[in-house]
Each structure stands twice: as structure tokens, then as C-alpha cells.
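User: Modeling request: complex.
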Amino acid sequence: MTTNLNPQKIFIGVSWPYASGKIHIGHLAGQYIACDVFARYHRLKGNSVLMVSGSDSHGTPILFKAEEEKITPEELVAKSHRDILDTYKNLGLIYENYTSTTTKNHEEVVQNVFLVLKERGYIYEDSSKQYFDPKVERFLPDRYVRGTCPKCGNENARGDECPECGTFLDVEDLINPRSTLSDAIPVLKETKHFYLDLKKLEPELEEWIDGSSGNWRKWVREYTKGWIKEGLKSRAVTRDMEFGVPVPVEGWEGKVVYVWIEAVVGYLSAAIEWAENIGKPSKWEDFWKDPSCKHYYFIAGGNTQFHTIIWPAELMGYSEKYDSDELWEKYKLPGETRREKLDLPYDVPSNRMLLFNGKKMSKGENHMITADEMYEKYGTDLTRFFFTRFAPENHDREFSWEDLVTTNNNELVANIGNFINRTLTFTYTKFDKKVPDGNWDESVKTEIDNAFEEVAQYIEQVKLTKSLERILELGAFANKYFNDRAPWVGVKEDEQGAKDTLFNSIQLVNALRLLLRPFTPLACKELGGLLNVKGEFNANDVLIENGVIEKNIDTWAHQPIEAGRVIQEPELLWEKIE
RNA sequence: CGCGGGGUAGAGCAGUGGCAGCUCGUCAGGCUCAUAACCUGGAGGUCGUCGGUUCGAAUCCGACCCCCGCAACCA
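Assistant: Request completed. Predicted assembly structure:
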């Protein structure tokens, strides 16, 4: 436990959950637990962490859902936001700032970014024809138009894709189109939009991807390169709608900035809001304008290209502001003082899909298990442990309740939990509740030090499943050590030998506690109590209590328990289920 | 030929040219401090298919088959 004199700055952006309901376990497996484990580790390591996210609170589906539930969109969004916060709290998911896209600050930053990109010529105006539902008087997103597939004749094809034959469609090609909102026949209407000129940024983008993607997950890199290979197309960045961030251009009333400009800018606006919240309005620049600050984006599946292509493109285009006296004066961000470029992503450790009965989870089709259900059944630690242990880091993974039970019983309980329990019980009953006076076994010491180092490496590479596997290895080592040394024999025949064994076992128990802090925080805290650990600095607890961490203290190392310390009566940290 | 991921023991997965591994399950044994736990040993695989390169291929090359994801504000 030493002051970290040279803390690494870590910015973590976590994809924004859509505020149309509760989050499900796919979200947990995808990013919300991984980011928290990663952030907790870095805080414990004494690094400077800024992790932000928020509720994505705009868009057509929210309008429709609100209508369905007969409440206002604002009410739906507020309720969803509260639900999400509850879930986070239950699962111990903590952010430096978790906000929402409904804030004035967000609107201001989005409009600022939009206008700079427009001034630099990366956003241009064009018009297109889009289906309009005359009955409900709304333009229709492609997915809200159904009709007959021109390829296979399926009468229920969606405007974007035919679910029957799998073809991606242009909405205008549908035969006999109808609106899913009213069943009315939609009409094609001319509408003007702004487009993001990705083509223009493509060379710069490609160079950046070639240079930076070496440490990305293979599938993320290949997927991204695939998009570039296909050629980037301009995309409309505005929508005909009233619910969202208004397009800040005269004559564009009734249109809003479309999500994949809007939501990703949240990473910046939430950082700015955080700086404001802690009373240091320029502090966000430490994380956004320091090239040594590493930017990680925890996202999942289909969001990948927004973070490896579109968001970097926006940042590149936006950073041209700093080359122009005029733009710099005209478009200052809140609290902005430094005329330096914004940092680009360092890594995008995107996960693949968690499947349930062979299909991915979906809010729309109600094919899901909510995060709340998981929490209510199995609690914080097991939920966190399981979805780290079996995160779909490199390929899709099937979720099953059996795996969850097996993992709990064989790994959390039988490996780690049982070792802790047998050690504490032995100490409590055979050594008068005191840590016996024993000598360090070098092999144990080495094993512990190696574990700290290797687990740290895995986490820093965002190989979280491996990091947990490594901790389980230490648990297996500990059980074997205990078994080989057979202190239950020694306690009668070789008392000092038994004392040595238990002294070292206690150290292993404490090592496991320290290593597991990012993964199973509740049990670690409880175990700290059993071991009578007092006054230990835990940056994550400080963040929960004070909302900010003032000191960078490196606590990622073994902290020995001294002989003679009295321990509490052992209690089970985790129990077998079913 | 749209883009991408995958196919290895009953299950879930590591393994990028050199004796096919890990966890769980299963079988046998040991131990008894511990949550029926822990420890040791065994059985179980023509590495999707076919062809090629090589002294040597799960791994490199070619063809094919199967599963999955991706243009929607679905993580």
C-alpha cells in the first residue's frame, strides 16, 4: 500500500443503455460487469480513473413505448433511469459519473460537436425520400414499415431486412408497404437531412486503425477492417422527430440529431459534466487531452463500429477545431482551456453475444432474463463472478442456469470458499482464534506475488475470464498446500509445522480476498471483517462514499496478516445452491 | 462470391508448425481440518469434411459443409 506517484490515467466509456426499460443479463455479460471489474482494479492500483456512461433517453422506440404505457416519454425515461440506477447499485456497479442524454449540458456539447463538424465540411445537407405515415403523421424508421419481400415473397418483411430469407432490403423495395404503427399505407415524402461524410475521413481513419488496432481483440479488429474494406458510406445524422437534441441550424425545426452522433458524444459530455460536478470545470481535459491517458470503450456486439469507426471519425473531424483561431474562439466546450486535440480510443474490448436457448436476448421480443431477476435469485457476488468467468469475450456464448449452479458450487464455493472456511475454522478452533506464530514458506510467498502480477496483467489486457481463472489457480494451489501439509496431523505431532501451515494459509486467504476485490466486493468486505482488517484504504469504497477519490494509493499487492491477530468466528461467504 | 466470428473428450473452452491440453462431469483410490469438501490417479478426442505444402499440420494453403452474429437507437 503505497502512494502511486505516477498514476496512469484511464478513461472508460461504457455504452449507454437505452432508457426504454430494464437491463438484462446480456447487457451484464456484454459490458456492465466487465467495465466495473476493470475500473475497480485500476482504482485499487492507484490509477486515475474516469468511468462515465448514462441512459440513452431519446428516439422513436421510447415514444412508442410511452404511448403504449400511456405515460409521457419523459416519465418513461425517468423511470427507466431510476430502474437502471437501482440495478447498478444492487450489483455494485459504480461510475465516476452516470448521467443521461436529457441534460442541458449534453445538448450543448452535442450541438457544439455537430456545428464544428459542419463547419469543417464533414456534415453536409442532402435530401432523400422516406416513408411517412399519414395517419399518425410521422416519418417511419425502416423497421416500422412492413411489406412483401421482393426476393422471397414473404408478406411480413421489414423495411430493413426480410426475416424469412435474410436479405437486407431497401425500404422502398418492399411490395405493398404498410405502417406498423397504424396499418396505414405510408407515402414516400421528400425530407432533407444532414449527412456525415465518412468517406472524407476514411484515409485518416484507416491509417489510425492500422496503427492502433494491434492490441484490440482479433474479432473487433477484423470486423472493423471489414467495414473499411466494404467502403464507408455517408450516413444521415438527423431525424424527423421532436424528441431529442434539436438540430442547431435555422430552418431545421422539428428535426433532431440522430443517435450515433448523439449518444457517442455522451462520452465527452458526461466527462464535462463530471468535472462540473466536482467543482473543477476544466478537469475533464486531463482525461481527454493527455495523450498518455488510455481510453477504453466497453461495449458489445453490434455497437462495435460506432466505437471503432464513427466515434473516432467524429473525434478526428472535431479536433480540427484546434487548428483554427476562429473555431477555437467560437466553439469552446464548457470549461475548456487547452487548445489540444481530443484523445482517440486506445482499446475497444467489445464482447460478443450471450445467447439464451440459442438466440440472443432481445427487449423487443421479450426473450430475456432481467438483471434484477438474476440479482434477486443469486445476489451481487455470484452474478458478477459468473458473468466475468463466462463473458463472451471472443465468441458468442450460451447462457444456462446449470452452468451458473455448477460454477457457484465448484468454483466459488468448493475451491475458494472452502479453502477460506477450512483455514479460518482451523485457526479459530485449534489455535484459540489467533493467527499462529509461523514462518513464511517461500513457495507460498512466490505463488502469491506471481498471482498479483499475473492477474494484473490479464486485467490490463482486458482478458477478464483469464484473470479469474488465474485466481482460481491460486485457490487450487492453496487447497493442495493445505492438504499436503496435513495440519490436522501436525497439530498433534508437530505443532510448529501446523502453525507454519496455518500462518501461510491465512496469508493465502488474505491474498484471495485482495485479488477478488474487483470481482466479488461484498464477500471481500465480509472476509475483511472476519480477519479483523481495520482501516484499509479501498479506493472503490471511497468513491461510493465521497463521489471522488482524492488520493492515488496503490493497494494491488499482498498485505500480510501478522501473527497473533485475533480473528472472528468464521461464517460462510458463499453457499451451495440447488 | 456482402462483412465478420466459430466448429478440439459427454458439456464448456485453451491451444498459430514439434508427444492434443484445461475446468466440470464420470470411474477408482487417498484423506478427514473444511460447505458431501479437499488431494491423487484413470477412462474418454481419426481437432467439421476433402485435398495440398512439410521430416512433421488442430495450427499454413485451397475447396467445401454446418452453426452464429451484423445495416433497426436490439448489448
